[in-house]
Amino acid sequence: MNQESNLSYRTTGRIAGLLYLVVVLTGIFSLGYVPSKLIVWDNASVTFNNISESEFLFRLGIVSSLICYTFFLFLPLVLYKLLKPVNETYAIYMVVLAVVSVPISFINMQNKFAVLSIIGSHHKDAEQVMFYLNQYDYGNLIVQIFWGLWLFPLGYLIFKSGIIPKFFGILLMLGCLGYLINFFANTLFPSYSELGISSYVRLPASLGEIGTCLWLLIMGAKNKAISAS
Question: pTM score, two decimals?
Answer without folding.
Answer: 0.89
